[in-house]
From TrEMBL:
<feature type="transmembrane region" description="Helical">
    <location>
        <begin position="7"/>
        <end position="30"/>
    </location>
</feature>
<feature type="transmembrane region" description="Helical">
    <location>
        <begin position="696"/>
        <end position="713"/>
    </location>
</feature>
<feature type="transmembrane region" description="Helical">
    <location>
        <begin position="452"/>
        <end position="470"/>
    </location>
</feature>
<keyword id="KW-0337">GPI-anchor biosynthesis</keyword>
<feature type="transmembrane region" description="Helical">
    <location>
        <begin position="518"/>
        <end position="538"/>
    </location>
</feature>
<dbReference type="GO" id="GO:0051377">
    <property type="term" value="F:mannose-ethanolamine phosphotransferase activity"/>
</dbReference>
<feature type="transmembrane region" description="Helical">
    <location>
        <begin position="866"/>
        <end position="889"/>
    </location>
</feature>
<comment type="similarity">
    <text>Belongs to the PIGG/PIGN/PIGO family. PIGO subfamily.</text>
</comment>
<protein>
    <recommendedName>
        <fullName>GPI ethanolamine phosphate transferase 3</fullName>
    </recommendedName>
</protein>
<keyword id="KW-0812">Transmembrane</keyword>
<keyword id="KW-0808">Transferase</keyword>
<dbReference type="GO" id="GO:0005789">
    <property type="term" value="C:endoplasmic reticulum membrane"/>
</dbReference>
<dbReference type="InterPro" id="IPR039524">
    <property type="entry name" value="PIGO/GPI13"/>
</dbReference>
<keyword id="KW-1133">Transmembrane helix</keyword>
<dbReference type="Pfam" id="PF01663">
    <property type="entry name" value="Phosphodiest"/>
</dbReference>
<feature type="transmembrane region" description="Helical">
    <location>
        <begin position="835"/>
        <end position="854"/>
    </location>
</feature>
<feature type="transmembrane region" description="Helical">
    <location>
        <begin position="482"/>
        <end position="506"/>
    </location>
</feature>
Length: 940
């Protein structure tokens, strides 16, 4: 059978086309902003002459105040270094939401996170002139890497930076730490090692620890505590950065409504009280949260709970502005911190900063010195506007010119300010102008590469259209002869030639972007080859379409899939997609059962509806839906309840008990892996559990699963159904391990749904011989229904297409893999399996749709059997290709929509990754089916 491996090669070929087109689209759509390498320089005040312009002129003697007055009267003068320098302690309490810092004495029975930081309230009441408390508003995405980057640069983060959240690279933009070291200052780091990776070599002393072990609440905090009090007694540093992680990790593991959150906040309170007591009088203390968290303890999106952090400032010698009590709770943008902290440290704002100096958290200053800070702020932003206009054409020239002129006008007005009232008016004007500048850049920050996006959409459309013509037009009996020819080998050879030509052209500098050239050329040549195949078989295609007559359930199933893709242009339907997929899949399956026309088929369909109704309790909801479940209203985010443990153990035991007798010797491995998984949960559950033994049992389960997967490829000549069932069960156990106790039953429900669908599909018959019946079994309607359920169980396992719903705990259920050499890929694989394990499992089981039951493909010859499996796998892959195309088209249409970064862009990313998982599963299932085609059948 010459053609059998050509089927697998073609599936891999199709997967490459979809994935490469998706990467090309992402390259054009998810671009980061233009980063400039500029560094803000300032001239020491001592270098200015008495006229404020000539430098080094010592013939006249004048005061700093007179020099500042002269500088303000010359709008074109250089930025002057602030004359006063104050040391600062920057205490970053990761995920310190604003209401964690509030204290409301009216609350009689506070929640676990309420009223746990009374030291802040006491300080505000006792010393209002020394302390301030604000709502510290973050820009999305609210992931730690982006927040640190925005805090130190004063710039706005970009959505695509979220991909770097757990592999932070060196920051090449100007930032606070860079400004301190350039001015001869010293910086000390304690805590999260993200800082040391972002800014290596900048620290006088660095005590950085690994930060991504989200189940470890105490190690980093305890290490910082052992160092920070000694550091506060030293005076060889200018800025001390201490990054505590316990509150954030408590949120990830347990959520805010848990006693562990109470413990971590009380520890924070004790630590703040001690720091305030020993803090030198002239040192500024900033206690900030980089982001908040949702009611499930997650973050990453743009909900108000995720964006609203806390900023507490304290200085024994007093702060400027109004007293703290009057301004408690007003909103301050996080971009304002960089220029403010730079001013305190005697440095100019970082070059990319779009923030304004927030004077109430700086030491009290004279009017002239205040004006100098504001003037420096405006000069830095004006310079940034000019440089950004030179390097990028994102902002319209007329709008950019207007902003530059408005900034220049404000700089000129600085010299006219004399009284406190005029200063307040001037400060309001400056803040309003800078806020307008921020709004403009928020609107145009992402520079879409329209050409790359259109090319990607074209390649996706070509791949989908021509392969749809092949699957729907070429008769099944012609498929074996096509793949026995040189069609696949010629296509792959042509792609190899394209890649070689692209590399040669890149070597001789004829093209600039090698990756794009490869994607475009291979995509176009693939489209040309499949188009040629369609033309060659056009007579057979048209004849089949002319003679064929689709049943109503077949047309409805295709329409349901198209509808599920079409509604992705609506943000409302994306938010409610879980319910929509469930309805469409169950409706299409119901029409299939009605077409079968037996009581048994209708009973199976009703059972399927009951299973889907049960999964509703696990779906949860998004922040935008309003009725989002919280602790006590759904599946808990932290320690599982006893009932959840019983359900998890019972579901695994039931699946293992039923399946073990039907898959031969493979059942022993499944039983062993299931026992390890159940023991892993039972041993680690509760406060008296043993986490170390629990992790060891999880490793045992993974070892058995890996061994079982390797043994699936052992040939026995007993057909392909048993290895495919065993593969599905292996993926089921793997999914339960990463889903954890709370969501493990959803994997069993997904497996039961697949079993019920298989039984209804096996009842579909067609008048005529077995080949016609097999053609009915492998129709696109079957693939559409299977794809709808595969997509639904992304939501049915408690996920949503938002960054805030990503669960990181699965990476650590068997221990911390990052201590291994390949730890990062293992972490990524475990989190990906948690998110996309269901599409992977459904994809691997696709061949069963053709093989299952008495009238399955086992009753026909091997060539027809493999052709049927191939067609069904390709149709299933096409379903996900259509959804990716719809998501990409939706993102293109809505690229300036208000919800683009909150809804459409995350949906595109998650849909693309879901498609990749489904394609991988399909290739695994098809390869397994091809490998186990029996020798007896082949010899016949």
């Amino acid at each position: 059978m010459k053609e059998k491996w050509n089927y697998i090669l073609y599936l891999i070929w199709f997967a490459y086309l979809i994935i490469s087109a998706g990467l090309m689209f992402a390259h054009g759509f998810l671009l980061s902003r233009k980063s400039l390498s500029d560094v803000t320089e300032c001239v020491p005040l001592s270098d200015f002459g008495c006229d404020g312009w000539e430098k080094g002129n010592l013939s006249n003697v004048c005061t700093d105040e007179e020099k500042i007055q002269r500088i303000l009267s010359n709008p074109g003068s250089d930025i002057a270094c602030p004359p006063a320098r104050t040391r600062a302690v920057f205490l970053l309490v990761d995920a310190l939401r604003y209401d964690f810092a509030e204290y409301d004495p009216r609350i009689k029975t506070p929640l676990p996170y309420q009223n746990r930081l009374p030291i802040i309230k006491e300080t505000l009441d006792k010393w209002p002139e020394r302390s301030r408390l604000y709502r510290f508003m973050a820009d999305p995405p609210t992931t730690t890497f982006q927040r640190i980057k925005a805090l130190v640069t004063g710039s706005l983060p970009t959505f695509v930076d979220a991909s770097s959240n757990f592999a932070a690279i060196e920051l090449h933009e100007d930032n606070i730490i860079n400004q301190v070291t350039n001015g001869g200052g010293k910086a000390v780091l304690l805590g999260d090692d993200t800082w040391s990776r972002l800014m290596p070599g900048k620290w006088l002393r660095s005590h950085a620890l690994y930060s991504f072990h989200t189940w470890d609440l105490d190690t980093v905090d305890a290490e910082v505590d052992t160092k920070i009090y000694d550091e506060l007694k030293k005076n060889d540093w200018d800025i001390l950065v201490a990054h505590y992680l316990g509150v954030d990790h408590a949120g990830h593991r347990y959520g805010p409504n848990h006693q562990e959150m109470t413990r971590k906040l009380q520890e924070t309170n004790d630590r703040l009280q001690k720091i305030i007591e020993i803090l030198p009088p002239d040192v500024l203390l900033y206690v900030v949260g980089d982001h908040g968290m949702t009611e499930t303890g997650d973050h990453g999106g743009e909900s108000k709970a995720e964006r609203t952090a806390a900023l507490f400032a304290y200085r024994s010698d007093g702060l400027g502005g109004d007293s703290g009590q009057r301004n408690v709770g007003i909103e301050v943008q996080q971009t304002d911190l960089a220029p403010t902290l730079s001013a305190a440290l005697g440095r100019p704002p970082p070059a990319p900063s779009l923030g304004s100096v927030w004077l109430p958290i700086l030491p009290k200053m004279t009017v002239l010195r205040t004006l100098l800070h504001l003037s420096n702020n405006l000069k830095q932003i004006r310079q940034y506007l000019i440089r950004y206009g030179e390097e990028s054409q994102q902002v319209a020239l007329d709008k950019l010119a207007h902003l530059i002129n408005a900034t220049r006008e404000q700089i000129e007005k600085a010299s006219l300010v004399e009284t406190e009232q005029e200063l307040n008016n001037f400060m309001n004007d400056v803040r309003g102008l800078i806020e307008n500048i921020r709004i403009v850049f928020r609107e145009v920050w992402v520079e879409f590469d329209s050409l790359s996006m259109l090319r990607a959409l074209l390649l996706l459309l070509l791949a989908i259209f021509f392969n749809w013509l092949i699957t729907e037009g070429v008769p099944m009996e012609h498929i074996p002869s096509i793949f026995a020819s040189s069609f696949v080998s010629s296509g792959i050879s042509a792609m190899a030639v394209c890649i070689g030509i692209c590399y040669s052209a890149y070597h001789f500098e004829l093209i600039e972007d090698l990756e794009h050239a490869i994607y475009l050329s291979t995509g176009l040549i693939s489209g040309a080859i499949t188009c040629t195949l369609v033309i060659m078989h056009w007579d057979g295609i048209t004849q089949r379409w002319y003679e064929g007559r689709s049943l109503f359930y077949e047309r409805f199933s295709r329409g349901a899939l198209v509808a599920s893709a079409a509604v992705l242009v609506s943000n409302s339907y994306i938010i409610e997609e879980g319910a929509g997929l469930s309805f469409l899949g169950l409706s299409a399956l119901g029409l299939m059962a009605w077409n079968v026309g037996t009581i048994k088929a209708l009973a199976v369909w009703v059972c399927c509806g009951v299973v889907l109704a049960i999964t509703r309790s696990y779906r949860g909801c998004r922040e935008e839906q309003g009725d989002c479940w919280t602790e006590g209203e759904g599946i808990p985010t932290g320690q599982a309840t006893r009932a959840a443990l019983v359900l998890a153990l019972g579901s695994v035991a039931a699946v293992v008990a039923v399946a073990r007798r039907h898959i031969g010797w493979r059942g022993y491995g499944i039983v062993l892996a299931g026992l390890f998984a159940c023991a892993h949960w039972a041993v680690g559950w509760g406060s008296l559990g043993s986490p170390s033994r629990s992790r060891l049992l999880a490793r045992g389960s993974w070892l058995v699963l890996i061994t079982m997967f390797a043994m699936l490829w052992r040939k026995e000549g007993k057909g392909t159904i048993l290895p495919l069932i065993a593969c599905s069960l292996i993926l089921y156990i793997a999914n339960t391990l990463v889903l954890g106790v709370s969501f493990a039953p959803t994997a069993a429900l997904a497996l039961l749904t697949g079993f019920l669908v298989l039984n209804i599909v096996s009842m579909l018959r067609s008048s005529g011989n077995s080949k016609f019946s097999l053609s009915t079994r492998c129709s696109s309607s079957v693939a559409c229904v299977w794809a709808l359920f595969a997509s639904y169980y992304f939501y049915g396992t408690g996920h949503h297409a938002t960054l805030g719903h990503v669960r990181w705990a699965p990476a650590f259920h068997a221990g911390d893999p990052n201590y291994l050499v390949i730890g990062t890929p293992i972490s990524a694989a475990l989190v990906s399996l948690d998110l996309f394990g269901m599409p992977l499992m459904f994809g691997a089981a696709v061949p069963l749709l053709a093989l299952w039951g008495r009238n399955g493909a086992n009753n026909v010859g091997p060539r027809t059997q493999l052709a049927a499996v191939f067609l069904l796998c390709l149709k299933f892959s096409l379903c996900f290709g259509i959804r990716v195309f719809a998501s990409a088209l939706s993102a293109t249409i809505h690229c300036r929509h208000l919800m683009i970064w909150g809804v459409f862009a995350p949906k595109l990313i998650f849909e693309y990754l879901t498609c990749a998982a489904a394609l991988l599963g399909t290739i695994i299932g098809a390869t397994l089916a091809t490998w186990h085609t029996s020798v007896q059948q082949r010899s016949s």
